[in-house]
Design goal:
Radius of gyration of chain A: 23 Å
Distance between the termini of chain B: 20 Å
CATH architecture of the largest domain in chain A: 3-Layer(aba) Sandwich
Oligomer: heterodimer
Shape of chain B: extended
Distance between the termini of chain A: 14 Å
Number of domains of chain A: 2
Number of strands of chain A: 8
Number of helices of chain B: 7
Strand content of chain A: 5-15%
Helix content of chain B: over 70%
Largest interface: A-B, 57 and 44 residues
Strand content of chain B: under 5%
Order of helices and strands of chain A: HHHEHEHEHHEHEHEHHEEH
Number of helices of chain A: 12
Strand order of the largest sheet of chain A: 3-2-1-4-5-6
């Protein structure tokens, strides 16, 4: 029995062990890797950023997933919330499934830890869990009057009495819906909110669902899309480079620029950051909290694991074609 | 201290689930059943507080909107799903649900068919739009079974198979990425949140 024949019969648990090591080692010994930002991510960033400081524009984040897909969706949720808090963008959150409710509250709490001035009911509002039976009445009702359709927030307060509702009436104002989903939930928002009322819809989806959503992205029915951990890593970088960026000329972040994002290198493992315009580099004095770079650190492990899988696929195919030509010695 | 205990429980349950990779065992099954039980236990009071109280109990018993008894009774018919003789009664609330689904058909047609067709009919002004054109036509012809797939026609429909294979490959690649991401998430929890080894 040659090495390729042995490989055909290898115990799958050895493969599991190698996969585990390929993930554990890059996490324990982190390194800086480049994150290239794709158009769907930068389009979403620019759309959200266009609402900065506007009284009559807001983003609605819909949480349509449970804890099993938190690894991919939680970093992008935190990044978008951070973007909204950094740029003074009104943000609402809502969910229609019970398991999403604690995840939604957790994402809000994690993101707002670093923004003590952001107040519930003023800068953001958690609509809370609404029974799925009310999905259509709420989605269609928000086209006329958000406060009338949703009624109360997660704390039981009347929506219409909240300060954040000044200037926010319907989808003309609540102009962007970002659905974080591990299912086809995004399609419901496109069907009812976009087709019926022309609301802008974007998606933050697991990688499994990304391929299903590309037709809607290509046809312009989604303004942007974050695909899995890679999409989350891209958004983390966008927020770091633009929304959370600070210097003497840009104390509250800076505007999106394709040249800057293309040329800027963000060393996530560095403990020092300060902007050097001549070098096009960012170094920081303040250590970036782990929660704001977890997707990029995860992508390090993802890259190693992908290389390992490609190697396994090549070896497996070599073994298959090598052994296929030889007659079965056991006959 | 509370956070440490919750993280400890989560870490132990994560390892119980991972133990299935070696082979099926009672620890894995315990964690699996616990997940189902906890999910249901969490969902029932949440639905009771957010659906039953504000939309059934309060309007009927406190505000006197007695007409809501009718849809409530129709909703209760769902429970007969569990009885063999009276399960047909559950079809009535299902019929209402199907009626609501019907309302979305025209809008689904618009977003999934009409808008997609409109974008497929754009002028061929780039390589991408040319590939989309060839892919759409060849795949549609592949699923046209009234004509034998032979000769030049058969070769062109074979191009459709290649386009589909590329699509399946992209989907599979994304699926691998998603599964690895889930494993990364759990290991980030074990090494970072629980053991504090990732900074």
């Amino acid at each position: 029995m040659n090495i390729f024949q042995r490989m055909q019969n290898i115990d799958r648990r050895w493969i599991y062990l190698v996969v585990a090591l390929c993930i554990i080692i890059p996490l324990l010994i982190p390194f800086n890797s480049k994150t290239y930002v794709t158009d769907p991510s930068s389009n979403l960033y620019q759309k959200i950023d266009s609402f900065a400081g506007k009284e009559d524009k807001a983003v609605l984040l819909s949480f349509s997933h449970d804890a099993s897909t938190m690894a991919e969706l939680f970093p992008m949720e935190v990044s978008i919330l951070r973007h909204c808090f950094e740029r003074n963008i009104k943000v609402f959150t809502i969910c229609f499934s019970p398991p999403s409710a604690p995840l939604m509250a957790y994402a809000l709490n994690v993101a707002k830890e670093d923004y003590p001035n952001s107040q519930s009911g003023v800068d953001y509002c958690n609509f809370g869990y609404k029974p799925y039976g009310l999905f259509l009445p709420i989605v269609l009702g928000m086209g006329d009057d958000v406060a009338e359709a949703v009624q109360t927030d997660a704390d039981g307060r009347k929506i219409k009495n909240l300060e954040i509702m000044n200037g926010i009436r319907n989808y003309d104002d609540l102009n962007l819906i970002v659905d974080f989903a591990a299912s086809a939930a995004v399609f419901s928002w496109i069907t009812y909110a976009r087709v019926r009322f022309g609301a802008n819809v974007a998606a933050g989806v697991t990688a499994v669902m990304a391929a299903d959503n590309y037709p809607y992205l290509q046809s312009g029915q989604l303004v942007g899309m974050l695909s899995g951990l890679k999409g989350a890593a891209e958004y983390e970088k966008l927020v770091d480079v633009f929304a959370a960026y600070e210097d003497a000329d840009n104390p509250n972040g800076r505007k999106y620029s394709p040249e800057v994002i293309k040329d800027t290198w963000v060393p996530i493992m560095s403990k020092k950051i300060s902007y050097d315009s001549s070098q096009g580099n960012i170094d920081t004095d303040v250590p970036l909290p782990y929660k704001f770079k977890m997707a990029r650190i995860g992508m390090n492990a993802q890259s190693i694991a992908h290389i390992m899988i490609i190697v396994f696929i090549i070896l497996g195919n070599i073994g298959y074609f090598t052994t296929r030509k030889k007659p079965d010695e056991t006959i | 201290m509370l956070e440490f205990i919750s993280n400890l429980i989560a870490a132990i349950l994560t390892l119980f689930i991972f133990s299935f990779l070696y082979k099926d065992n009672p620890f894995y099954r315990f964690a699996e059943h616990l997940l189902v039980g906890v999910s249901m236990g969490y969902a029932i009071p949440l639905v009771y507080i957010n659906a039953f109280i504000p939309f059934v109990y309060r309007p009927i018993f406190l505000e006197g909107n007695l007409w809501l008894i009718i849809p409530s009774c129709i909703g209760i018919l769902y429970i007969f799903r569990f009885t063999r003789n009276l399960s047909w009664l559950s079809r009535y609330p299902i019929a209402f649900g199907m009626g609501i689904v019907g309302m979305g058909v025209p809008m689904s047609m618009h977003s999934s068919v009409l808008v997609q067709m409109r974008n497929a009919m754009r002028p061929i002004d780039s390589i991408n739009s040319f590939l989309i054109f060839i892919g759409t036509v060849s795949i549609l012809l592949y699923f046209y079974f009234s004509k034998p797939h032979k000769g030049l026609y058969g070769k062109f429909t074979n191009v459709g198979i290649w386009f589909m294979m590329v699509g399946f490959g992209a989907s599979f690649g994304y699926t691998v990425m998603a599964r690895i991401s889930l494993l990364i998430g759990r290991i980030q929890f074990l090494l970072g949140d629980f053991l504090g080894l990732i900074k």
